[in-house]
Amino acid sequence: MFSQPIFLQGLGMGASLIMPIGAQNAHVIRTGVAGRHVVLTVACCVLIDVVLIALGMSGFGALIEHSPALLQAARWGGAAFLLWYGVRCLASSWRGASVPQATTGQAASSAARALGIVLAMSLLNPHVYLDTVVLLGAVGSSLAAGHRASFAAGAMTASLLWFSVLGLGARRCAFVLARPAVWRAVEAFTGTTMLVLAALLLAER
Ligand SMILES: NC(=[NH2+])NCCC[C@H](N)C(=O)O
Q1: Complex ipTM more than 0.90, yes or no
Q2: Is 111 exposed, middle or buried (0-12, 13-18, 19+ CB in 10 A)?
Q3: Which DSSP symbol is given to 37?
Q4: Rg for the chain (alpha carbons), in Å?
Q5: Cα 62–59–141 angle (5° rounding)?
Q6: pLDDT of residue 107
Q7: What is the pLDDT of residue 20?
Q8: Residue to probe by mutation, ligand 1, list 46, 57, 88, 127, most atoms within 8 Å of CB
Q9: Are 169 and 31 spatial neighbours (Cβ–Cβ below 8 Å)?
Q10: Is rRNA-binding there in the keyword field (predicted)?
Q11: Ligand 1 center to residue 35 CA distance, Å?
Q12: Looking at residue 167, what is its pLDDT?
């Protein structure tokens, strides 16, 4: 049966995990600013979350939680990914490099390519698994069986809302975000946040 408090718990936990900016959020913002394949990118991020959250709820999260080696791998991998992406953002901000733009070359702007990039940004990013399968999965599968669906629905709704607001919001605000000085500030901020998150992930025990 549907439980509203449990739905809200899932929504809150899902939101708190996705909202801190990381590689995936940064990619969604870039796509929005470039104004190319925004809906495709958002849909792909949401769909991946839905599948992985369902996987976590099915007991896979609890399984991983009891496997220290896998948990460590997700942690180190996640931190390495955030470090790499954070340093890239900071370097790009420092250089004052390119504001994301809809590239005119056919290959560069094809939907297939956009799909490939968002898949890589999501599926090669251990942080994604950590949030969805491990953390949401562990909390979700510790709930009474009758409450799990409400929790999962809440967490999935958080992904749907957040990625939509982020992608469409970035597209809407592209005229401001695409100013070189503003974009540099965005990159400096996202890069710094990612480094802090990486440090937190490593400090966790
Ligand atoms: N539920 C998720 N998809 N989590 C994955 C990563 C979210 C993270 N805040 C990022 O932007 O990269």
Answers
A1: yes
A2: exposed
A3: S
A4: 17
A5: 75
A6: 46
A7: 85
A8: 127
A9: no
A10: no
A11: 21
A12: 96
The mean pLDDT of the chain is: 88
pLDDT for 35-50, tens place per residue? 989 999 999 999 999 9
**Residue of 25, 27, 119, 132 to test ligand 1 pocket, by largest number of atoms within 8 Å of CB:** 25
Q: Is residue 128 lining ligand 1, measured as CB closer than 6 Å?
A: yes
Expressed in angstroms and rounded, the spacing between residue 140 Cα and the centre of ligand 1 is: 18
Q: Which of 190, 173, 153 is nearest to 38 (CA)?
A: 173
- Rounded distance between C-alpha atoms, residue 139 and residue 61, angstroms: 8
Show the tokens assigned to 146.
Answer: 């009758």
Residue nearest to atom 3 of ligand 1 (CA): 128
pLDDT score of 65:
75
Residue 71 has pLDDT above 50, yes or no: yes
Runs of H (alpha helix) within the chain = 4-18, 23-34, 38-55, 61-65, 68-95, 106-109, 111-123, 126-129, 137-141, 145-172, 174-177, 180-203
Helical pair 4-18 and 145-172, crossing angle rounded to 10 deg: 40
Query: Using a 6 Å cutoff on CB, does residue 18 contact ligand 1?
Result: yes
Rounded Cα–Cα distance for residues 13 and 21 (Å): 15
What DSSP line would sit under 147-164, residue for residue?
A: HHHHHHHHHHHHHHHHHH
User: Closest ligand 1 atom to the C-alpha of 45?
Assistant: 3
